[in-house]
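The passage that follows is intended for readers who have already worked through the single-chain material. We present the inputs for a multi-component assembly, then the predicted structure in tokenized form, and finally a short commentary. You are encouraged to pause after the input and sketch how you expect the pieces to fit together before reading on.
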Amino acid sequence: MNRLSAPARFSLNQETVRQWSLPELVSGCAAAGVRAVGLWREPVRRFGVRQTAKLIAGAGLRVSSLCRGGFFTAADPVGRAAALGENRRAVEEAAELGADTLVLVSGGLPTGERDLAGARERIADILGELTPWAAGHGVRLGIEALHPMFAADRCVVSTLGQALDLAERFPAEQVGVVVDAYHLWWDERLPEDLRRAGAGGRIVSVQVADWVTPLPEGVLLGRGQLGDGCIDLRGFRELADGAGYRGPVEVEIFHPGLWAREGSEVLREVIERYRRYVA
Amino acid sequence: MNRLSAPARFSLNQETVRQWSLPELVSGCAAAGVRAVGLWREPVRRFGVRQTAKLIAGAGLRVSSLCRGGFFTAADPVGRAAALGENRRAVEEAAELGADTLVLVSGGLPTGERDLAGARERIADILGELTPWAAGHGVRLGIEALHPMFAADRCVVSTLGQALDLAERFPAEQVGVVVDAYHLWWDERLPEDLRRAGAGGRIVSVQVADWVTPLPEGVLLGRGQLGDGCIDLRGFRELADGAGYRGPVEVEIFHPGLWAREGSEVLREVIERYRRYVA
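Having made your guess, compare it with the prediction:
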């Protein structure tokens, strides 16, 4: 095992090195001993779902997650039907890729709406239709809570507790939760919610990025390199492990500073930081 | 009563019209029939605390809140002593102004620290020393939870539930909570926490601003004009009223777009929006 070889549970989310094409991602991961990747639908579809699946399988890689389905909060029938159709396609893609989980980001408040509770209820409703489809394709759905700063425009599910309340309406082998340190670190209920998630066999994905300030405009691209911020990432990973999680730990950083650098140099740094702050 | 006359419970936080000097604020409020204002320490100190108190009293205005004390999370003895000294001065100023409450923003994580629970415990510790001083000056302290997006650099108290956990360690007539719709709107526990706060006589201040996206860089100046965003402000105010709150409802908007306009025009618009979306 060379010095570059990534820890066994390390997974690289594709968006961390979005400057890489899919072939570059696969060869870069192989060179660094990375065993799992998190993929995104848009680049996968551009490259071709079948071609991606072949490329990934040929390199002996595992797909720890496919991002993403969701955006379930449309209040009108047309928007709802479109969301359901799009999510069925996402399930098919996840199945073809053999992804461990399809990540679901619930969606924010539709324009002009102020009813958070109503939007949250619509998510449960559409999940009720999507879940049999996913089960039929052997795909497990993972509900991801996003940081409350995204509640308006991206995801009305803001805490792990809420994600569990939704997931637990369905069988554990069909619907679980994605726990991302960046979104959840501030919540004092996190330890008890992680125990609840683990006890129910609901943790389908663990993701990490650090919290750095000041947040950039739009806040989406503010995820920091591991160790650059204030999250106790090792403590977070240990909580998940303590709750029984044994799967991949996926590094998902959206940061223009990382995208501007050479991909293999970024991956080397990410692995080094992962060893120091997470493993 | 002319058409400009503000609703009885309306209060204008000074930072909403920061383009105004204190004399302009006082005369502008008098002209619009505003009965209460929220003040900030920095402009008050620049103008002079005693002079401000005279000006306010002379116009028959009430000070609904003084912002702000707090920043209690220093881990070192020197930083802790400095924070305590600064907060004693803030209490004296609040007493001189006759403010209903001194707003406390707890402070974020000290640089290099990752221990949220430890930082939260230090707040309780320093409050134990500050509270008798405040009681001796007849000043009520109000713990404000800030949105979780401020947990790292501004306020480790992120929910109303946490603010209440802290406040309830002290007598209700000495320590209460400040409830600000902008910081709390996303939290599904808000209704039950507001009931708990009201039942204990802990609500010392109610503030409103709307949530608009995209958030600006640094996110601090992203508070939106009432009605421009997605918060159910009337529902929020009704929850507070339902919990027994009868005090002022303070409009606190930090927005460069408002600061660039003529102050009395901004106040007129704020009052109109308040009638439409809050009252």
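Commentary: The mean pLDDT of chain A is 96. The first strand of chain A starts at residue 10 and ends at 13. How closely did your sketch match?
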